Amino acid sequence: MLSTTELQGLVKPDRVHRRLYQDPEIFELEMERIFGRAWLYVGHESQVPEKGDFITIDLARQPVVMVRDRADGEVHVLYNRCGHRGAVVCNQPCGNVRLFRCCYHGWSFKTSGKLAAVPLEAGYGEDFDKTDPQFGMVPLPRVANYGGFIFASLSDSGPDLKTYLGPMLRTIDDILNLAPDGEVQVSGGVHRYVFDGNWKAQVENINDLYHPPFSHASTTKEDGRQFQRQGSNTGAQLTDEDGNPISFWDETGIRAFDNGHGYCGKLPDSGSGSGPVFEAYLKALEGRHGPERAKEVLDVPWHNAIFYPNLCIQSMAQHIRVIRPISVDRTEVNVYPILLKGAPQEYNQQIIRYLNITHAPASLIQTDDLEAFRRIQSGLKTQGAEWVMLARYFGKDVPTDEGQKGMGTSELEMRNQYKAWADYMTQPQPRSNSHAS
Amino acid sequence: MQASTYTANQPVVENLDHERIQKFVYHESRLLDERRFEEWIELFDDDATYWVPAQIDQQSPLNQLSIFYDDKELMQTRIARLRHERIHVDDPQTRSVRMLSNLEIESAEPGAGYDLRARAVLCAIVFFQQKQYIYGGRCEYQLRDRNNALSIYCKRVNLINCDSAFHPLVVPF
């Protein structure tokens, strides 16, 4: 097994060792020490609106079910495993139940996870304690809800969710403020894709503002503008007419916080809009916030937010992105549109339409990045060089009250992720609630 | 576009020119195999849609995500990207061969906005980034037959694994 010193030696302030992407033993340790300890995003409570509603997902490679309790309406996150012989109990992606029932010997469970009934129970004798939690569907040690976003931790210790997320909570507030009714709805389906690459390649990519003009070259026309995006906005300008990246990528700026979190600044076209659908939405939003505040709310000051290690929220192609590591060289990603309660239906339909173009498995944008992740996985097999460079604008990052800020195309965000990675990976015990700077 | 209105008991109309329509959909399919995308698009009317739902029996392309939901303009953007020299995901070029079978044809009800419906079983074998993938599903065409020419008003492809996780999809089905 890799020692703490060996693990620490794989991460330097401006580079990481290629082994992080290639070694199955490191992957297993990541599942134990990062995914086994961090707060992980599970789902949004609007995915289980009614009592008895459930969804099933994989969290850190383990099947779990998120369910709304029939009795008290609480949202639980349970291990999807029968308390008897261990079979997955709930085999549907979503649905509504009165009780969960195991297919094998018919044990049934309440939506709280508690064991409800055991067929021919007498066969277990008098010592059998049906209230022992291990015979139920065991709840995850910690579950917390912020603005309807449900997080869970596989560990029973560590900082609470709000402390863990810190300044990132603002980004959830910003998204909620975009909804004229103050709530969002995750009910527009999901894009599911896989790539033959390591999960960290996707996490690194989220706030990588260095890549768009190159990776997404195939979406730009000769004038450097991307195809038309949402509503009446024109396409984003990725490069100048000679194909050189333009300066806004740096001006956008990025922020890095404790625990590997961070976000990048807004893109130039954000916060604007026109046409009858946008006007109707604006009116609804003004109804909630008043005209002045509505304008501020629309001008979301960030574009992509990373909640390390498994969640991204994007404000422009408005979505929740969940990263699900499968193995050291295989990752699934799920993309859910964030729909705004109280917005005109057509406005939410634009969000869906746009997300098909940008993030479907057949999308015009994300597929080029997926190919880059696949090539990274392949390229890092080579033995010619040991290190992956993350040195862009290294040493130029500026400390802030909350963390650090850097130029838009800085690789600060990745350096910050690997700082958190090393913290997690080199601590044999769960981390304490400290505020490292 | 509405969800399919086919029912198992609906009789297949006998007096339609089966062979002519078969030739048309075979041709459409071969244009994709041969990456003759510009000719492929020409088969679609200006108000056409191309839809690959992301859910079984998906009712709406507007309120739920889809794998593809293209109008003609987006189809053109998509094709322009497929022709771009720096489309990394399609380098080297994706190859595909598809088989259409079990063709059934019926005439549309009056006022439907199109004239014929055709459905066929699709088996597509795709060679993408050194790996081979098999996709199976059912194609549903809404066709117009005007001035002695067939054209596509809507093509919907119902993949049997539409709600699973996909490797990147480059060439339309």
Automatic annotation (TrEMBL), chain B:
The broad enzyme category this protein falls into is oxidoreductase
Annotated keywords: Aromatic hydrocarbons catabolism, Dioxygenase, Oxidoreductase
**Signal peptide extent:** none
What SUPFAM superfamilies does this protein map onto?
NTF2-like (SSF54427)
Spell out the Gene3D superfamilies in the cross-references. 3.10.450.50
Q: Would the keyword Oxidoreductase turn up in this protein's UniProt record?
A: yes
Task: Name the Pfam families on file.
Answer: Ring_hydroxyl_B
Q: What is its EC number?
A: 1.14.-.-
Q: Care to name a GO molecular-function term for this sequence?
A: dioxygenase activity
Q: What does the similarity note say?
A: Belongs to the bacterial ring-hydroxylating dioxygenase beta subunit family.
What PANTHER family does the record point to?
Answer: BLR3401 PROTEIN
Q: What is this protein called?
A: Aromatic-ring-hydroxylating dioxygenase subunit beta
Organism of derivation: Marinobacter azerbaijanicus
Taxonomic lineage: Bacteria, Pseudomonadati, Pseudomonadota, Gammaproteobacteria, Pseudomonadales
